[in-house]
Design brief:
Rossmann fold; 5-stranded mixed sheet; alpha/beta
Amino acid sequence: MRTVLDQNLDALMDEPAISWEKFKGQTVFVTGATGLIGQLLLKAFVKANQRFGLQMTLLGGARDFRKLQTLMGEHFSEIVYVHYEMSSPIELRPAVDYIFHCAAPTSSAYFVSHPSETAQAIVNSTQHMAEFTKRTRPKALIFLSSLEVYGYFDGGLKWVSETDFGSLDPALVRSSYSEAKRFSETLLTAYRVQYHLPITIARLTQLVGPGLNRLDKRVIVEFANAIIDHRDITLVTSGETVRTYCDTMDCLSALMIIALSKGDYAVYNVANESTLISIRAMAEQLIQAYPDSGTHLLIEPAENPQALGYNHEVKVGLKAERLESLGWQARYSLPASFQRMIACMQEETGGR
């Protein structure tokens, strides 16, 4: 029986904007292979090998062999495990054609409790990847960055292109992640220009959709867990933060299209502009979509939500015009992303 995730990966194979044949016989290296995007990329490439006979060599870079083996399941035998430490230089010998550098801390609470480790891991791993790219000259290195590099804007909702920037306070420990991503982008830009390297930056918004699991600490997963468990959603902020989102499958298609493109830009936003919504409205929308859950929304603001890892209130929508110029289109609405994510999560826990 095909799982919800399998069905969605099958649909991704039919994405007309991805020139799958260009991956034929290529070696693809994915770091952060036990993270959300890393494992989904590997599973998608395994699916493409099976569907199109591409004979790609797939390298999964991760620190924890057992975790990667568990996450990949029956597909583990179709990838090559590479022991990967963010703090160490990359010693790979085989020629690599495409690199997706996904490795990074992702927990907001960790950014606050371990800010020095957060910043060092991101910057050091980027330095090692830049040197590896300079030495091996792949066809493309895609660096996964974040909407957090844009910082904060005054004056209400701001639609942000790749050249717009607000303010970041480097003296806040929560900035350990945002500032490290910013500096990593600068470092990779320096390598790209000085050494003429094929480096592209993908600035991801927050993701929703199949592949997220119930143990994830993202707010959107907490919302989904509340629906599945028939309990209330409790916000510890006012819920007025507004942002755009992107489906996990739409994100995968974006990264593959970027990797294969010879576009005019070195930076691309990855977001679905139609998903702009506040945290509070998103929770209310989800509750309305699942009336049988009995879930209610409770607002209980914490005294200092930033100490828990939450960002200050932002109202930012990412523009996706550059990405769309490559032929990319967002296929999934926010309600569709939640519906498929919840179905996937319930399937993993036996329908609960």
